[in-house]
Design a protein that fits this description.
With about 220 residues, the chain is an alpha/beta fold. It is built from 8 helices and 7 strands.
Length: about 220
């Protein structure tokens, strides 16, 4: 069963800002810069697991025609209030309701970690991407450095659940967060799941966030 984000939708943005000290916004901006690289002509973008619409809004600012999909109705209600002109759909990333090869770019910020069948979700995202198009994924991960790890563990295992219970009234959701980060493949292990495409990744903040850029091979 996917985690039910309806329960934390109302406080999601506030907690994001607090937990990342505002860095989440900067990471999304970096992802949009990767989507809008000068070599690519990007108009239509699918934002998968769009949540409360922060990525959608950033893409719109850069002139993209965006479609946002998510499983959580409550998250989408907030997204609509922030970026009302975007097309939103309640849809499962693992069964996207789109034809093959129909978006210039596909993005997903902090969403793939929540897929029940990760490889199925990734393969769907690649399926709807046009040949020659780009998929950009942001995801949280554990830092590699053994020097940083104790500080990260203290923050992730104690401070984040405490913030979750104080702000969202939901300690359980914010205990799930660091646990799901710990379990999730990162770096080359994650890219390995994508198989063939030419992919690269960049670490931010000692690897606490990673951006994966995957280019779908152009049709020959
Ligand atoms: C951590 S939030 C990220 C939201 C947003 N992308 C952001 O940048 O803040 C994860 C989102 O993924 C959605 N989600 C989880 N599994 C999904 C799936 N299989 N298909 C579509 N959305 C999914 C959740 O409902 C939630 O809104």
């Amino acid at each position: 069963m996917p985690y039910d984000f309806d329960k934390i939708a109302r406080t999601y943005d506030r907690l994001n800002r607090m937990m990342t000290l505002g860095l989440d916004r900067r990471w999304r901006k970096r992802a949009v810069s990767a989507v809008k690289s000068e070599k690519l002509k990007v108009k239509s973008v699918l934002d998968v697991a769009c949540g409360t619409g922060d990525m959608v809004r950033e893409l719109q600012k850069h002139g993209c025609h965006v479609t946002g999909v998510d499983l959580s109705e409550e998250m989408l209600i907030i997204a609509k209030s922030k970026a009302p002109t975007v097309t939103y759909m309640i849809a499962d990333a693992e069964h996207l309701p789109f034809e093959n090869d129909c978006f210039d770019a596909v993005t997903c910020a902090f969403g793939v970690r929540n897929f029940v069948h990760l490889e199925q979700g990734l393969s769907e995202m690649l399926r709807v991407l046009k040949p020659g198009g780009r998929m950009v994924i942001l995801e949280l991960s554990t830092p590699d450095s053994p020097l940083i790890r104790p500080f990260y563990n203290l923050y992730a295992k104690h401070i984040i659940p405490w913030l979750g219970s104080r702000i969202a009234g939901n300690r359980e959701a914010y205990t799930y967060l660091p646990e799901s980060i710990e379990r999730f493949p990162k770096g080359e292990a994650f890219l390995g799941l994508l198989g063939d495409p030419v992919a690269e990744h960049t670490k931010y903040c000692f690897g606490v966030c990673r951006m994966y850029v995957i280019n779908k091979e152009a049709a020959r």
